[in-house]
Write a structure and sequence with these properties.
By secondary structure, this protein is an alpha/beta fold. The chain has helices spanning 3-9, 20-25, 34-37, 39-52, 66-71, 78-93, 118-134, 148-161, 187-196, 211-224, 251-263, 277-290, and strands at 13-14, 56-58, 98-103, 139-145, 166-170, 201-205, 229-232, 239-241, 244-246, 266-269. Strand 6, helix 10 (211-224) and strand 7 form a beta-alpha-beta unit.
Length: 291
């Protein structure tokens, strides 16, 4: 099944939840490196999300782009780690679920704030997109970006180098002044970029907002764009406990917040930091009640 068929078939499409926080909870490296060092754990998490009710699994390839890997001096081959991420997700997805390749930020800044050019970012994302596409993903999700300029570099590269569905998702820090990321990008700007560069859906994930805050962001998006809206909140606002960041929102409360996002217009939902298969199952169960 293609993604557009899934959108037409289901009132709400369910994506999976947090991968990095789930890996960390099992004592594994929270990055895509675990595709190579803890593949059994990655596979198990993917399977659990599928069993919880996810229609789409996202590869464990967030930030596994060349600039991020090299700037952090990680001893990882870009092609190997991305190919492994697709393979693990695809095995867990089977024939019933789709797999989207995860493309995240570089962790660096564009000129004049940083030393990278837009062309360098474009080539960086083009490489990762081509690998993920060649390995057989059903689409790409460009997520957790705070700088729309960087997100457009990624979106443009993915559009030029692949012919699969693209989703754009930014991380917002406030609902004020039209909803803004920490770098000042607004909901309306993100909506316009998604339309201009051919995304099939646009929305928000991660950031500093709880699910109810994300519902407010969803409402702003709904007024700005006709595209399907995706929302993947964290399990509440982060709390620093000692040296660890904790997300303490329980599945039932999380599902309540996600249902508010759906009321405001979201038709694709999932989870980000701190969410677990239990959170996704709670959302899936609530949607079953509606139908």
């Amino acid at each position: 099944m293609k993604f557009n068929e899934l959108l037409q078939k289901k009132r709400v499409v369910i994506f999976d939840g947090g991968m990095g926080s789930s890996l960390a909870g099992r004592g594994c490296d929270s990055s895509g490196k675990s595709n190579l060092t803890s593949s059994d754990a990655v596979s198990e998490i993917h399977r659990e999300y599928g069993e919880a009710g996810a229609d789409v699994l996202i590869t464990n390839t967030f930030t596994m782009n060349r600039i991020n890997i090299e700037s952090h001096s990680l001893d990882i081959d870009v092609r190997e780690v991305n190919a492994a991420g697709v393979s693990l997700a695809r095995q867990a997805a089977g024939q019933k679920r789709l797999v989207f390749g995860d493309i995240g930020p570089t962790g660096q800044l564009l000129e004049p704030y940083g030393s990278y050019t837009e062309d360098q970012f474009y080539q960086n994302y083009a490489e990762q997109a081509e690998i993920l596409d060649k390995e057989g993903v059903d689409g790409l999700i460009i997520e957790t970006f705070t700088d729309l300029r960087e997100a457009v570099c990624a979106l443009n590269a993915c559009k030029d180098r692949t012919n699969i569905p693209l989703i754009l998702s930014l991380a917002f820090t406030t609902t004020q002044k039209g909803g803004r990321t920490i770098m000042g990008s607004t909901v309306e700007e993100a909506a316009k970029a998604a339309e201009e560069y051919g995304a099939v859906a646009v929305g928000a994930n991660c950031g500093d907002l709880d699910p109810l805050g994300m519902a407010a962001i969803t409402n702003i998006f709904r007024d700005a764009v006709k595209l399907p809206l995706i929302v993947q909140p964290n399990a509440g606002k982060p709390k620093l406990v000692g040296s660890e960041t904790k997300y303490e929102m329980q599945p039932a409360e999380y599902a309540d917040g996600v249902m508010k996002c759906i009321e405001k217009g979201a038709s694709i939902v999932g989870g980000c930091c701190g969410t677990t298969p239990a959170h996704i199952k709670a959302v899936a169960d609530r949607l079953k009640e509606l139908t």
